[in-house]
């Protein structure tokens, strides 16, 4: 099946997305989000990491998370991409909760092209990307040679080699 045309008129930009879920069928939620991003022409996904089972971060009194990363391209500018992603999250049933709390789906823009983007609503690359094993390990799996702001994703992920992240067997979102 061919992916729909991308929305927007600008040339495509390469993007990285982090996806997480800890409510319901976590792996299915990630797959559904990726399907919606493509079906709506928001992003064309080119690579998807394995899904990782991860402990909650920040607010820890909740169920474990499923986390994955995806690479793709979009024609939307960063703020329009953010708005479209928030629409997907809302349409899937995400509701407001405590910071870092339980969520049906969470989609973060990790990077947009090669240049930084700084706006009160969105900072790219994601300001906490290099501090989160649950993002770095899946991202390094699909983009080991990626460098952001002069930093190697692979080397940053290696710092978290002892972090207790496990791949879910037979639960790939692809």
List the helices and strands and how they pair.
Layout: E1 13-21, H1 26-39, E2 44-48, E3 52-54, E4 65-74, H2 78-92, E5 106-112, E6 117-119, E7 122-124, H3 133-142, E8 147-148, E9 151-152, H4 153-158, E10 166-167
Antiparallel strand pairs: 1-4, 1-5, 2-4, 3-4, 3-10, 6-7, 8-9
Keywords: ATP-binding, Folate biosynthesis, Kinase, Nucleotide-binding, Transferase
GO molecular function: 2-amino-4-hydroxy-6-hydroxymethyldihydropteridine diphosphokinase activity; ATP binding; kinase activity
Domain 7,8-dihydro-6-hydroxymethylpterin-pyrophosphokinase: 99-110
Please describe what this structure looks like.
Pathway: Cofactor biosynthesis; tetrahydrofolate biosynthesis; 2-amino-4-hydroxy-6-hydroxymethyl-7,8-dihydropteridine diphosphate from 7,8-dihydroneopterin triphosphate: step 4/4. InterPro entries: Hppk, Hppk_sf. Keywords: ATP-binding, Folate biosynthesis, Kinase, Nucleotide-binding, Transferase. GO terms for molecular function: 2-amino-4-hydroxy-6-hydroxymethyldihydropteridine diphosphokinase activity; ATP binding; kinase activity. Residues 99-110 form the 7,8-dihydro-6-hydroxymethylpterin-pyrophosphokinase domain. The protein has 174 residues and is of the alpha+beta class. It has one domain (13-161): 2-Layer Sandwich (Alpha-Beta Plaits). 26% of the residues lie in helices and 26% in strands. It has 4 helices and 10 strands, in the order E-H-E-E-E-H-E-E-E-H-E-E-H-E. Strands 1, 2, 3, 4, 5 and 10 form a 6-stranded antiparallel beta sheet that branches. Helix 1 crosses helix 2 (78-92). It is globular and about 40 Å long. The relative contact order is 0.22. The model has no long low-confidence stretch (mean pLDDT 89).
């Amino acid at each position: 099946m061919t992916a729909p045309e991308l929305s927007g008129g600008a040339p495509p930009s390469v993007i990285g997305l982090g996806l997480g879920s800890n409510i319901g069928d976590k792996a299915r939620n990630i797959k559904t989000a990726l399907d919606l991003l493509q079906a709506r022409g928001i992003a064309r996904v080119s690579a998807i990491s394995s899904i990782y089972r991860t402990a909650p971060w920040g607010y820890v009194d909740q169920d474990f998370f499923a986390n994955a990363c995806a690479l793709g391209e979009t024609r939307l500018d960063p703020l329009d991409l953010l708005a479209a992603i928030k629409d997907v999250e809302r349409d899937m049933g995400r509701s407001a909760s405590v910071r870092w709390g339980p969520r049906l789906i969470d989609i973060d823009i990790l990077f947009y092209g090669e240049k930084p983007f700084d706006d009160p609503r969105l900072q790219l690359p994601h300001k906490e990307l290099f501090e989160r094993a649950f993002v770095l390990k899946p991202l390094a799996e699909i983009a080991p040679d990626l460098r952001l702001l002069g930093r190697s994703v692979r080397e940053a992920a290696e710092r978290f080699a002892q972090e207790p992240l496990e791949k879910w067997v037979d639960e790939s979102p692809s």
